[in-house]
Amino acid sequence: MRKIVHVDMDAFYASVEQRDDPSLRGRPVVVAWRGARSVVCAASYEARKFGIRSAMPAVRAERLCPQAVFVPPDFARYKLASKQVREIFARHTDLIEPLSLDEAYLDVTENKLDLPSATAVAEAIRADIRATTQLTASAGIATNKFLAKIASDWNKPDGLFVIRPEAALDFLTPLAVGRLPGVGKVMEAKLAELGITTVGQLRDRGEAELLRRFGRWGRRLHELSLGIDDHAVVSERPTLQVSSEDTFERDLTLSELEPHIIRMAGRAWAAYERELAQERSARTVVLKLKTADFRIITRSLTAEAPPPTLAHFAALALDLRDRVGLPSRIRYRLVGVGLSNFRHAEETPPQQGLFDTEG
Question: Per the residue annotation, which of 62, 97, 103, 245 is the catalytic one?
Answer without folding.
Answer: 103
